[in-house]
Fold this sequence. Notes:
The structure holds 3 protein chains of 3 kinds. Chain A is 75% helix and 0% strand. By secondary structure, chain A is mainly α. Chain A has 2 domains: 1-80, Four Helix Bundle (Hemerythrin (Met), subunit A), CATH 1.20.120; 126-168. Chain A is globular and about 65 Å long. By secondary structure, chain B is mainly alpha-helical. Chain B has 13 helices and no strands. Chain B has helices at residues 2-7, 10-47, 63-72, 84-101, 119-140, 144-175, 180-186, 202-218, 230-233, 244-267, 281-308, 314-341, 345-367. The termini of chain B are far apart. Classes of the chains: A mainly alpha, B mainly alpha, C mainly alpha. The A-B interface holds A 24, 26-27, 30, 33, 49-50, 53-54, 56-57, 60-62, 64-65, 68-69, 72, 77-79, 124, 126-128 and B 81, 83, 85-86, 89, 116-118, 121-122, 124-126, 128-129, 131-132, 135-136, 139, 142, 144, 147, 151, 154, 158, 161, 176-178.
Amino acid sequence: MELIFWILSAITVLGAILAITLRNLIHCVLSLILFFLGIAGHYFLLRADFIAAVQILIYIGAVAVLMLFAIMLTRHVTGDEGPREVLGGKWWAGMGTAVIIAGLLWAIIRKDSLAQTLPAGTAATSVAEIGKALVANWVVPFEAMAVLLTAALIGAVVIALEEVIRKR
Amino acid sequence: MRSWFANAPDSILLWVSIAVPILFIVSVFPGIFAYTTLVERKALGRIQNRLGPNRVGRWGILQPIADGLKLLTKEDIVPRRADAFVHFLAPVLAVIPSVLLFAVVPIGLGLVPVDLNIGILFAFAISTASVLALFMGGWASRNKFSLLGAMRAVAQVVSYEVPMVLSAVAVVMAVGSLSTLAIAKAQSGGFLNVTRWFVFRPWGLVGFVLFTIGAMAESARTPFDIPEAESEIIAGYHTEYSGFKFALFQLGEYLASIAMAGITVTMFLGGYNGPGSGPGIFGGLISMFWFFLKLACMIVLNIWIRGTWPRVRVDQLMGFAWKLLLPMAIVNIIGVGFWHYITIRPLAWVVTTLWLVIWFMVLTKLAATENVAPRTYRYAS
Amino acid sequence: MGFIGKGLLEGMVVTARNFVGSYFDKERMVTVQYPEERVQVPENSRTFPFLVFDDDKNPVDTMRCVACKICEVECPPQCIYIVMDRDEKGKPQQRPKVFDIDISVCMQCQICVEVCPFDAIKMDNDYEKSQYGRFNELVEHLPDLLKSNEYYNKIKPREASGVDAKLKADKEKKAKKAAPAASKPAAAPAPKPASATARITIPDDAPFTPEQREWLGKFLVTATPAAGAAAPAGEASAAQLAAPATGEAPAGNWPWHDPGMGIQQRLELAKNKPLADLLMAAMAQTDCHACGYDCRGYADAIAAGSEADLSLCLPGEAETENMLKKLMEGAGK
């Protein structure tokens, strides 16, 4: 099954590279979707099928659609493809950020305790176990996330409502 | 033949076990799609006091083939300033999720192409990916009306996904597993293999109604066909598509509707269970028969509803989903909880039914649109 | 007690009943299975023109069209093309040799029907006219256009019976007017004097209007070989014909009253005649009544001053109009 890993990685990396280099923004978002699909495939390989399915459901079904809507509503509808200057042309800012992140990643991967291979014969984590863990061991972060999402939802409605009230 | 299967090396068996379901799905379900279009046209015709197509072959039997040939030979027009790549990709992305959905539908006892233990979750994840196709179709046409249609379509699909998924959660709670095969197996037994269907439980009935409404809205069928209503927005997101790309959009939509009907049957109507279904070859064939019979009933229900109800207005659509269906779905989940934890069956029946009915009445009162004064008419004098 | 969704379910019951009932109650289906069945078109519907003939056994001779070309002139998109039939000597036969209607141009306005003085062209209601070509295949020629009076009665009974009644009344009126003046031994206007040898007679049931009979009578008299010997008889018959036909003009010999003659020849024949005769000679001599009179009447009206419009002679077109103008100027009017 090594071959599948390499194919999936190739697709994922291709999606990521295309997402930052293509000129047309919509094409960028579509390659980002390809990237998400690749990551979901990796999750399947790691036998975390719940996470994989949720990755597709949330990232592709919601986040990518949100990005598409945002692009569509804020750019000129005909999709201008004028030259873009990222970060106001300060290429050294981007380079510096890339170096810092690369350094962090290398430091993390180098430490053995975090980079482990799966022991052979690991059973897939079933949804039931995830559910039980969420409401038993991790209930506080779970509820906190719920509160955060509710607050975000209410905030979005309030912002939209303000627009409506102001327009009237 | 059996000895050949027993002695064949594992890799060959693997490929055979992959190829057979794929071939089955790819040949049977598009065939069902083609004849569903014919049955729909003839049934709608008879409802409307006219005959459906009956010129191509006796009773119009060859009509789907004629339609397919016509669409194949039509000129493929791509608007000049349209985004050619996205324009090409949109119909493809419309079909892929619809076909993938069939991978988790059990058509008979133990007969599911892939027995995922996250089957239902996979089905919903895939169906959300079909939203992208709607959007890409509308965007790539460089047509403001298409874009508008696409946005409305996406809003509709996303809004109706939520109560649909939540009503499926009720079933998952009752069964304890996300696997479609397990859900179908949980409905076997009982008198004639019928009484344990979830549709005969209070929470199951509510869930069935919610899920059916959600499934009709997902595949943009009347009364939720705002995205592609001819009198509203020409053809919405697939206005600029002609020829085979249009056929692919239709294929994707109908296949999604059939697949969702299949999942409805699995979750609420007992899947392949029916009198006579059981293990063994004969029982397996009977179970396949029952599954396809129930699938046909759901398709007929879809067609019947299409011929009867008028189209829902966009604001009514959103209000219905968010104000009535979503709270009802949450209430339904709590109802399943009552059912599960109250061990005395008659009490469970009473409590669950009361809970659901009372909340239904409350929610319909709350969700009622702003008070409309009785209409006054002014006639020309 | 209405619950939410009651109306929806009632609607579904209605459609279900309609669906099931459609198998048992065949009359409720509104589908017309074309081409096995056809929808009955109303009587007034019209598609393209056709030419009427009266006798099945002899369509070409009994067609009502006399090739006066009024419909060709009046047609707004100019889709009619007519060539009059002439015999070997060049004499016009009062029927068309070529009558083409281009139905890809025809706009079905029915103006040709309205202006035809002989009820010869009527509107058909046959809509199945598709052809495999766009140009020549859509031009209808004379054989395609000739259809019988029975067919006309079948497709438009009310209109056709009105036309038939009018034609019959006209014929009777002419016969009644000619009867008192038949004092000569030649008796009826139709048969010629017995002295003529190779005389062509017009049978009684030939479908000519009284004006047509009159003209034909005169023409046949002048056209027969024994014309020289029959000239006096011709004059006599012309006299007896002329009297009942046009009550307004004095009976006279009009040798120029021949549509086959050119305008110069006609004016030659009418030289040194009174102005009314000259004016008549300038006209097209078809007695088609496009101007509202017959040729003699129009000329008399112009001469008397009661008709000021000199352009009414449609078959004569510009030639006649210019000549009329010149004659009127010459006469100082």
